Amino acid sequence: MNAAVREATAPDPQGSGPVAPALVVSGLGKSYGGVRAVDDISLTLGAGERMGVIGPNGAGKTTLFKMIAGDVSPTDGRVELFGRDVTAVPTARRARMGVGRTFQVSNLFREMTLLDNVRVAARGGTSGARVFWRPQGRRDDVTMRSLETLESVGLADRRDDTVAALSHGEQRQLEIAMALVGRPRILLLDEPAAGLSSAERATLRQRIEQLPRTIPILLIEHDMSLALGLTDRVMCMENGRHVVTGTPAEVRAHETVREIYLGRRDRKDRM
Ligand SMILES: Nc1ncnc2c1ncn2[C@@H]1O[C@H](COP(=O)(O)OP(=O)(O)OP(=O)(O)O)[C@@H](O)[C@H]1O
Ligand SMILES: [Mg+2]
Fold this sequence. Notes:
Low-confidence stretches: 1-13, 126-131
CATH class of the largest domain: Alpha Beta
Bound molecules: adenosine-5'-triphosphate, magnesium ion
CATH architecture of the largest domain: 3-Layer(aba) Sandwich
Strand content: 15-25%
Structural class: alpha/beta
Radius of gyration: 19 Å
Order of helices and strands: HEEEHEEHEHHHEHEHEEHH
Oligomer: single chain
């Protein structure tokens, strides 16, 4: 074995061994009757890497996320998280393994306060399994962690307001707080900027930029300045299929991507 190979495969000085990619998707597919929502998609997300997923409506982006998070079982292929095959592992267990996510359709409890929303998320509550509990006072661990997380997205002073009182942009930031409070090892963000004003987009962009670089991020976005500006690599899909994966500059220059985003006058999401 030569020195370079030895170095690449040798345990690191802390003895924890080579770091597995956060996510490996291989040949993933999902059919709904005759519709091939996702068709033979493969991708690898390295430790700390940020990757954008773009493509027109119906390209299969959300279905891909749902298979990574465990909501939808693939028809073919496999999903590995942190070096482990999780294709048959249910959503709740993947969340406990460190999958944090925001949803294309909001997942907030509108009549509850921000703090209570984050506390529910900290306890593993989701829209599918609304978990309520008796608060143990203002200083229990979950509350302290929830307050810190609200602080990190700039919403600490709104903690006692109900979600219904928040602007759309603040709601998106709260959703990120709810994804972060579980101390995720990977973040899946599905169109976090959808429906936001340009000022709200700018704030959201800053919040995402400021997230710890140690957390790998997969970001679905129609807003090209975010999808290409916040990421190290970008994958474009169309009709369930892979079009191209590359650096933001490579993807921006790709002929099919240009056709998809510039060639259609009816599209809102311009490059
Ligand atoms: N539960 C379902 N049953 C049947 N068809 C579905 C289902 N979910 C998604 N599809 C179909 O799969 C395809 C991909 O949908 P998906 O929501 O993944 O696209 P998307 O890229 O997220 O689109 P958008 O940008 O509009 O959010 C679409 O044709 C959609 O109608
Ligand atoms: Mg979608």
